[in-house]
Amino acid sequence: MISNELKQAVLEALKLDDWEFADETTAAQVPGWDSLSHVNVILAVEKKFGVRFKNLEVLKLKNVGDLQRLLDSKLEHRS
Amino acid sequence: MIKDLRDKNETVWNRWCENASAHPDRDAVIHWIAGEEPFRWTFSSLLSAAKDTTAHLIERGIQKGEVCAIILRHNKHLYPLYLAISCVGAIPAILAYPNPRLHPDKFRQGIEGMSQRSGLDWIFTERDLEATIQPLVAGTQSTIKGLHFPLEWGEERGSDSPKKMEAIECTASDSDPFLLQHSSGTTGLQKPVLLSHRAVLEHVNRYSAAIALTESDKVVSWLPLYHDMGLIAAFHLPLIFGIPTVQIDPFEWVLVPSLLLEAVAKERGTISWLPNFAYNMMADKITDEELSGLNLESWRLLINCSEPVRDESHRRFVERFRHYGLRSPVLSCCYAMAETTFAATQTLPNAEPSLLAVDRSELSKGNIKPVAHGGQARICVSSGRPIDGCAVRIVDENLNEVPDGTVGEIAIASVSLFDGYRNYPEKTAEVMRDGWYYSGDYGFKSDGEYFVIGRKKDIIIVAGNNIYPEDVEGVVGKVAGVIPGRVVAFGEESESLGSEQVSVVAETAVADESGQKTLRLAIVKAGMAIDVTIGKVYLVPPRWLIKSSAGKPSRKANKERILAAREDLELRNA
User: Count of domains in chain A?
Assistant: First the structure.
């Protein structure tokens, strides 16, 4: 389940009005989310939630569900 | 290291053998994988693996002169396979592994188009692509004889293969075709460039002198090997010269741009080639945390190539990394293209490229004049002087040379010029005349240095990749709501990206805001199917687009019109 906050961060980074994200949604399915803009999405999520992802963690992400779980683990670790 | 080729019938394979013999334990290819220890091929282990792979090729009936396409992801076995294909006298051609965004049908069409033009004989790929490519093997529109899956091959080799292999080595000649490169693109519009052993060796000999290459140099690259900059500069140049090259996965680098800096620091890399957008990307997207402990002082040359060079990108890059050991004369530029094997011009090592601040309005008229007080300046960055063996001239539309300080088309004559586009005589005739290659790029000469400022042709360069506007217009023209045939695509400068982005102007009868929003999204999605990100969509009413004399919408005129209209709107809203 993708949180509304994460969805908004991704939409803002990609300058998209709206898009339906499921756990299985991959970057390739989302307009504007290409390899060049991927780093913008990651930086936007890090900034919005005040977290830092490691390089290897970023490389292992396969879909939006992975990004949500990684974000959740960072937030959980922080609290 | 630099040899005179005139007295010797030498092939690239000979040079690899010499290097393996002279420096058997020296690193040849350092195969970089994020988070893991890199795999290190030495010159001798690489050659040995190539010989084993050659035996597999012989067993599979690969013949001299056959074109062997390689479509593999970042894998350490790619390098010996490439060498082995050359060993049997066949012609390797590295093609891009399809991005997940690219629709399988479009990918297949691209391969089919390439096959018709280049005469692809065999495809060496991964099992994942079998279902997509296999239909082409039996197809009447394709020359492809079969697929091979080299990552599944074992270590065993046939008993009589070494003898056969020896015989094949003996038949290789310096004028034989060595490799085939394709310009990028997705739908078969690519032009195949065939290069001989001699052309590549001549180029390496002369270009290595231009950048003062020494045995202590080490190349570090994330560039894809299907691109001339990655293949010639970052792969063939070091392997032929006898120095190591660090190969980073392009897909990993674009997700984590700090990987290049990490590899340079850890491996004490000295030379990298980069397209302009990479300077912006690394300056803007790498955090201090990622840079912690990295020292970049070993980097002596960072060569900007493949896209128009932007001074602003250089400045941002130097400012960002100067506290991490980046030396100020590291910046360098070259002007290169596959048709001349690679570089035609290069700036001097250890000296920053010259800059010229010219008047923008005069430049648009083709004149180079220093900007007057209050005028709008464009900073032009030098791409240097012709390398040895290359001659460059600037010509007008009648192909007559123009005086210094006048904009014209750049033409090149070179000892490492290609032999023409494969099976494409009409396209070759368009660009070659009397031994000169007419590049389709605009530039000017000043004090012996060449400045590249634009393109005569409509091709769009996004992050170093060529995109044909025809490809984009083709798919956008089929989107419901767009008036068929009433679309133009062009490249629009993006300052933040340090590159161009793809923009589209499309005529539509849809006028309401909600309908237009839906249509814009549909157009962007159509671009995704051919792996093109459309950055901007301009929707205009029917009959808005200006037609050329041929009756088709003119890209240049409509680009100027839409950008002027946008500027006007921005001014009114300001």
Answer: 1
